[in-house]
What does this fold into?
Amino acid sequence: ARKGKRRFGSAFGWSPPGADAGSFANPAYAALLERECGVLVPENELKWQALRPDAASFAFDRVDAMLDYAMRQGMAVRGHTLLWHRPKWMPAWAESHDFGSTPATEAERLLTTHIETVMRHCGPRIASWDVVNEAVDPETGGLIEIALSRAMGGAQQSIDLAFHTARAHAPAAELVYNDFMSWGAGSATHRTGVLRLLEGFRARGVPVDTLGIQSHLVTNGPDIAATVARQESDWRAFLDAVVAMGYRLIITELDVRDTGLAAPFAVRDPLVADYTRAYLDIMLGYPQLGDVLVWGMCDKYSWLDGFDPRDDGKPRRGCCYDPDFRATPMRAAIAAAFAGR
Ligand code: G3I
It folds into this structure.
């Protein structure tokens, strides 16, 4: 998948050499990246939380090391993310920032300075950006407010400004709105909210090229065919509406939470693979779909166990490689889906 138009890639991390982490500095992990990936994305290091110790400074050391590595390896890099539109994932200082007597002006200055500085620093080394991440409330479909957006008079202002600023500083880059609305039945409100946001972008002339579909899949039971059948038509209706507005698509954070699947691994792994294959067969059928990125190559370092441990206490198996760096059936499923196109 390295050389084709549609690339396969993964999130990766920074760690000091010798640390056991999903990082390019870990030779076992780097070997997976170098063998499989044409495009990488820093899992955390480009977020405000990592880059911005305070309102005045930027800490680019980790990002620079990651970009240097990717360039040396001839791999492309995506940028994640210029604005994660959730109070929880902005730095505490930004959420309690004193916007002074002209809050809108100060908030705009803070946001545009951030985006300009990060985009200038990375320059053409990053050609695709998750400009805004997760701004839609899955429960209501409305937009989530953060301190910056409140100071500007509402989330529409901060989100639109982020995209306009990004376009001004990287006219050739792909600008992405990235979110986790899924094909699950519980995501209908979320999907509707995302469609409304995308329609608004087009109506107001906001420069957004692509919908980033995170693709944190949840299996929800052992009968994969039935789960897929339940979800497919709503999902296609959503995708059809998105591409009808002229958006491109990319898969930005694929992994699988094998919830409701019985142990042992010999049973769980093929079900995860089947679910991944069914999902990718639908997605890869859209000519508007570009790159496919997984959210980490290896279960050993995935966020999934920490975020959502299984009820039975068994480790999650939602990546292409198991904790011992052996390929899982999911890897073969992805390769087969790519090969079929
Ligand atoms: O690096 C610090 C470390 O110095 C500190 O000691 C430790 C104590 O909490 O925290 C470390 O930072 C953690 C960071 O991951 C790196 O491990 C943060 O606390 C932790 O919140 C952070 O979690 C990340 C999460 O986003 C929030 O930024 C996950 O790794 C990352 O996989 C996850 O990724 C998100 C995407 O950005 C957006 N889509 C959903 C996806 C999964 O939640």
Observations:
- The pocket of G3I is lined by residues 43-44, 47, 89, 133, 180, 214, 253, 303 (CB under 6 Å).
